[in-house]
Specification:
Strand 4 and strand 5 (51-55) form a beta hairpin. The chain has helices at 15-20, 59-66, 72-87, 93-102, 112-120, 127-141, 155-159, 163-171, 175-187, 191-197, 200-207, 215-225, 236-246, 261-272, 276-284, 287-293; strands at 2-5, 28-30, 33-38, 41-48, 51-55, 144-146, 149-150. It contains 16 helices and 7 strands. With 295 residues, the protein is an alpha+beta fold. Helix 11 (200-207) packs across helix 12 and helix 14 (261-272) crosses helix 15. It has 3 domains: 2-65, TATA-Binding Protein (2-Layer Sandwich); 72-107 and 231-289, Endonuclease Iii, domain 2, CATH 1.10.1670; 112-207, Endonuclease III, domain 1. It binds a DNA duplex (13 and 12 nucleotides) through residues 22-23, 119, 122-130, 132-133, 167, 170-175, 177, 211-217, 220, 233-238, 260, 284.
DNA sequence: ATCCAGGTACCCA
DNA sequence: TGGGTACATGGA
């Protein structure tokens, strides 16, 4: 195990919250140690206050993966500045409360394929089931590292599976999505490079070419896999929160009609600013989620 | 049992 | 372009 100590500008950081808030799947905690796959390697991480112990990668990779370069106080300031500009009020107490509950979260920098694979698996399921599903897929089709330690399935492996056996891994109707997307990645080897080079709106359109990738999954992949902090995944929970808390201040949206995906996401970008993705994650990941997951 | 879950594809007006 | 609906399945 290697060790590093978090400096003042790398705080706050909460490993548990970061790994259990629904942005990454397939990681397991035993004792105090989190273990999982990042970029084709098995990594273990534990946190004791400001001490991080880790294995499986070098310090540079870990820093990048964990988003430790992000300056959280600056990000929070940026968000507050944009809120104040939007509302002409001093502060948003609702958001402040949510932020204080989950400020230790970092937006991870996941491997694009691992992230894409995960969020195709995520549709219309709860966080716990998604984790199980991805665990099964890794056990059955992931490259074996050592006994009991598998990586994510490679696109080539996914393309070669018959749908019937894939459906046995709790994938259900998502099975053809996984296979179709794998096939597309195989036949377009520069796909992720292309996504990196495109603007946020164009990258999102391009991702949505893939089967099983709609606006929500595309935003998750852009936020968690491509560092696009302006991406705002709108799921049921975010929809409920924005509707209940902010619908009245969205221009032209006062009333009872349901808000469209883009209305919610665009509002978040204009309300929270360029770090809307972080703001979204603070709203999404409250303490109840943490309790729900910490079994 | 019934409803819900980090949705998407497809159909129809 | 926008609004229903089917889809699989574990959890609560």
């Amino acid at each position: 195990m290697k060790t590093l100590t978090l400096s003042e500008k790398e705080l706050p950081f909460d490993l548990d919250l970061t790994f259990s808030c629904g942005q990454i799947f397939g990681w397991k905690k035993s004792g105090n140690i989190w273990k999982g796959v990042h970029n084709g390697r098995i990594i273990t991480i534990r946190q004791d206050n400001r001490t991080i112990r880790y294995s499986g990668c070098d310090k540079k990779v870990l820093y990048h993966f964990l988003g430790l370069k992000d300056n959280i106080p600056e990000i929070y300031q940026s968000i507050c500045t944009h809120i104040a500009k939007f509302t002409h009020e001093k502060q948003d107490l609702f958001f402040l409360e949510r932020f204080l509950l989950s400020k230790g979260i970092r937006i991870l920098r996941q491997d694009p394929w691992e992230c894409l694979f995960s969020f195709i698996c995520s549709s219309n399921s709860n966080v716990r089931t998604i984790g199980k599903r991805i665990g099964l897929l890794m056990e059955n089709y992931g490259t074996c590292c050592s006994i009991g330690e598998n990586l994510f399935p490679e696109p080539l492996a996914m393309g070669a599976i018959d749908e019937e056996s894939l459906r046995k891994c709790l994938t259900g109707y998502r099975a053809p999505y996984l296979m179709g997307t794998a096939e597309y990645i195989i036949t377009h080897p520069d796909f992720f490079l292309k996504i990196s080079s495109l603007s946020y709106p164009d990258a999102k359109k391009e991702l949505m070419i893939l089967p099983g990738v709609g606006p929500k999954v595309a935003d998750c992949v852009l936020l968690f896999g491509f560092e696009r902090m302006e991406a705002v995944p709108v799921d049921i929970r975010i929809r409920k929160i924005i509707t209940a808390q902010y619908q009245d201040i969205i221009p032209g949206e006062k009333g009872t009609k349901t808000l469209s995906y883009d209305t919610i996401a665009d509002f978040c970008r204009s309300y929270f600013g360029p770090y809307a993705g972080y703001a979204q994650q603070y709203l999404f990941a409250t303490r109840d989620v943490r309790q729900e997951l910490s079994v």
